Amino acid sequence: MKKYIYSLFFLFVLTSLSAQRFTASLPNYEAYKAFRGKPLSDKFSNIESVKVIYDLRKQKMYYFNSGVILLHYDFVVNYLGYGHDLEIFNNENYSDTEKNRDFLLGNLNHIKGTDKWIFELAASDHMPISLIERFFNLVKKSTFIGEKLKFYLNNPQMMEWFQREEFKIPCVKSDYIFGELKYQEVVHGSNIGILKKYKIKELETIKPSSDEIIILDDTPDILPNVRGIIVNELQTPLSHLVLLGKNRKIPIMAYTDIEKDNNIKRLLSKKVELKIEVDTFFIKETTKKIPVKSAGKKKKLTIDNSVTQLVSLSAIPKKGVNYIGSKAQNMAYLIAISKETPFRTPEDAHAIPFYFYIQHIQKTSISPLIAELLAYPHKDSTVWINKQLKKIRDAIKKENVDPTLIAKLNETFKNAKFKNFRFRSSTNAEDLDDFNGAGLYDSKTGILGDSIKTFEKAIKQVWASVWNEASYNERELFGIDQQNIAMGVLVHRSFPDELANGVIITKNIFRANFPGITVNVQKGENSVVKPEKGEICEQFVAYHFNDGKDETDFDIDYTSNSNLNDNEPLLTRKEMSNLYDVSKKIESKMYRYWRKNQFHPVDIEFKIVGEKRDLYIKQVRPFND
What we know:
Oligomer: single chain
Helix content: 25-40%
Radius of gyration: 27 Å
Structural class: alpha+beta
Strand order of the largest sheet: 1-3-2-4-5-6-7
């Protein structure tokens, strides 16, 4: 009887809390659940959040329903009688002083399935330490969480204070959160297919069916043509898997506990519906039909074979896309933009036109192999196709390159300051609006005058990568005409002394309709787009709060810090601000060069180089989201 009465009382309390819009305290987890919602930003998966306001004038605490009231500003206007506009609210209540503040604003976050509780301010909140500590202790006192509560350091100023040991409250960085993440949305969406499981090694000889949703034991270099993909390791948000997955528009997720999930084991070999969302996923058996994929139009490729000389990129080639490829043409645009913007581009940039590749593959040892591959009727024969692709690559590497090209390269670079040069793919099937080709082709280094790392060897390796398994299969999937694929080569000095490298997307990919750029950066030459197992890069969103333009109004919101740099920031605040300004300038200029509609983000690759920590931009292309 007592148990029944208690249950009724508990149900009454929970129902009352749910009906409320706010409360002054959270005595237990059930009270927290009544007010929880999703964070405004999707930078972390598996987080639930309750918004918190402390009224400095009335000295009152408010925890409110994040699912009903999205913004702190909405709450103070509709429930506390605040009468100023949003700009005044932001300027006064996110400032670095208590003087004009009416409120302290925060978020009480919980990592689902754990006992980890995190108190976080907006990254744009410049609250002084004394107020942070006061606010933190008020939250601790008015909730059930107690000593489990930690303060999350999410911007450079807080990091500096922490390094100087100025905080008197327990603080954590992103590694505290990342260590608990088991699930990650890679590409959101839903699909229906037969659930199958493969080892990465098996994909060398087995081709999954196009009606399957597959589970893999590692991150694939080649994405099979399937309905959805589940991998067992977390991904760098701007990795090649992510970019290719977005291009494919298929749902992809990472789930580190997949081997322990009995529900998924039970569903193997059954038709399932998979739905991937930011903070969770759903998978269940279904009787729904697997949707039929419509075959798209064959995408014709353009080749201008009339240019027979090495092309300098110091001037913008006219219609260069047709004879040196998008990547090289975009480098010429970057060089032009750099003349009026504070960044550098790789020195001695030139392009080898399509002509030399076409000339090379027309040799009798190569062209019949390509013709045999393209005429082969059994496209599902993974083993035969992979063997044929290797024969083509080997034949390309075996034949000599036109000696006039090598002589021209030697002559062009004989007085260059640098001896090491990077040879990079610039095909007519990459860096396009609807096909980015991320990671499909190879880049190689050649050293002027070297007998081993020769220019000729580097060129042939890049040319051969046209016929990599990944590049060939991706073109097949997108209906790209394999008969007219052509490889130009972008050549410029290499970077053996890079301090950091990274990728910028000129939009806030974690929060819709909110300003900013998203940056992934890693120490030295360690890859952001193809990281080694266990590597976590530095990741942040940078933006100007209230659309301001001065550096004091510039804010950084960290998602993670590099575990290769002891979880300390890789870039200074000034460097971050410069990245923002440069990337927005490039975005604006590229719209004009491409003659595209604005408000479409771009994907930029950069490096920090040398003692002076110079910013180099090495690539720009459309971001296909």
